[in-house]
């Protein structure tokens, strides 16, 4: 039965699998880079970023020698910026080792690399028989085998990891790619193509009418709201920005003057945007954006720096800030 499942997926993959550039190589650096980018990003968007990173930093040594600012700037727009910081840190780890780690255990020691990413790198780059378990795999296995154990519990992770490993055939890398593509293309989260599915006859969820209910995931995340107010200062062709510190969202990224309370907003500001909504994983942000044009620099906290407005694009900024800045009119200077 398990052999039939794996063989069916491999046959499906031969016909419908995606042709992705990082699948045309065994270079662990290229594969690792793709996996980090795609952790929270769809392939369509991540492809462009992967191509740019590979062009700018074609080797792990090149990436390790870059500054964090350069990496964050190249990452801008992908979100989840801790991935970029971990990527840069891990590149330095690899260079310090003298080679890319080639065992599952050593790959897991890299910053930002969990069980799934390690298994993907190990199987795709080194042919190690390690089963990947990502969102697509959870969905395919939960539906086909009718497993209602929540995927975000300790028990669920153990159950699915064990089953995924048990199903793994000799061609581990190809099978891993097959089951992930099957989940992304055929067994999709909404409106899966069940009527033309090669596994429909053995799918427990299809027979029991529970396709939409599987996989099960416990709701544990509390979403909170947060209100922000930014003042863009325009002073003789310059503006003030500061770098966000650790312990909060957007660590290491740059932003204009963040006003802590409405009483701090100068009276001669002009409101450009109001209540701009921006959704993060665990919170919803609402931002107001003001313009302050002055001839003399106002007094700001010590961590703000003054730069030419024309240099703003050189600094990595959150997507929300990019959205706010797009409402600025060009300076008369």
Provide an overview of this structure.
The chain has 333 residues and is an alpha+beta fold. Helices cover 41% and strands 15% of the residues. The chain has helices at 2-16, 28-37, 43-56, 60-65, 68-75, 82-97, 104-107, 115-126, 135-145, 154-167, 172-186, 204-208, 319-325; strands at residues 224-235, 238-243, 254-255, 257-259, 270-279, 283-294, 304-308. It has a 4-stranded mixed beta sheet, covered by helices on one side. The protein has a 3-stranded antiparallel beta sheet with strand order 3-2-7, with no helix packed on it. The chain is elongated, with a radius of gyration of 24 Å. The mean pLDDT is 93.
How are the strands ordered across the major sheet? 4-1-6-5
Low-pLDDT runs of 5+ residues are: none
Structural class: alpha+beta
Determine the N-to-C terminus distance: 73 Å
Rg from C-alpha positions?
24 Å
Name the average pLDDT: 93
How many runs of DSSP E, i.e. beta strands? 7
- What summary fits the major beta sheet? 4 strands, mixed
Strand content: 15-25%
Q: With helices defined by DSSP (H or I, 4 residues minimum), what is the helix count?
A: 13
SSE string:
HHHHHHHHHHHHEEEEEEEH
| Fraction of residues in H or I helices | 40-55%
What best-fitting shape do the alpha-carbon axes yield?
Answer: elongated
């Amino acid at each position: 039965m398990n052999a039939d499942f794996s063989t069916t997926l491999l046959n499906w993959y031969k016909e419908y699998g995606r042709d992705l550039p990082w699948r045309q190589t065994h270079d662990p650096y290229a594969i690792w880079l793709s996996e980090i980018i795609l952790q929270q990003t769809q392939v369509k968007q991540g492809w462009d970023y992967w191509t740019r990173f590979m062009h700018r930093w074609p080797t792990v040594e090149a990436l390790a020698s870059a500054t964090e600012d350069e990496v964050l700037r190249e990452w801008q727009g992908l979100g989840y910026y801790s991935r970029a910081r971990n990527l840069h840190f891990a590149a330095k780890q690899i260079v310090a080792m003298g080679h890319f780690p080639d065992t599952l255990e050593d790959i897991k020691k890299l910053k930002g690399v969990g069980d799934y990413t390690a298994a993907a790198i190990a199987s795709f780059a080194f042919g190690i028989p390690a089963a990947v378990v990502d969102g697509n795999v959870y969905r395919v296995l939960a539906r086909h085998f009718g497993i209602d154990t929540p995927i975000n519990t300790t028990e669920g992770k153990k159950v699915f990891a064990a089953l995924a490993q048990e199903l793994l055939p000799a061609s581990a890398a190809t099978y891993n790619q097959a089951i992930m593509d099957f989940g992304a293309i055929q067994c999709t989260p909404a409106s899966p193509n069940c009527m033309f599915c090669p596994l429909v006859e053995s799918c427990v969820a299809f027979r029991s009418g529970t396709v939409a209910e599987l996989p099960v995931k416990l709701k544990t995340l509390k979403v909170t709201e947060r209100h922000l107010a930014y003042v863009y200062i325009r002073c003789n062709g310059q503006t003030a920005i500061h770098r966000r510190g650790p312990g909060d969202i957007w660590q290491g990224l740059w932003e204009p003057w963040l006003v802590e309370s409405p009483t701090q907003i100068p009276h001669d500001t002009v409101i450009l945007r109001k209540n701009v909504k921006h959704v993060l994983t665990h919170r919803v942000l609402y931002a107001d954006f003001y313009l302050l044009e002055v001839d003399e620099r106002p007094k700001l906290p010590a961590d703000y720096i003054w730069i030419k407005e024309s240099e703003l694009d050189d600094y990595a900024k959150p997507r929300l800030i990019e959205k706010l800045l797009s409402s600025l009119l060009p300076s008369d200077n």
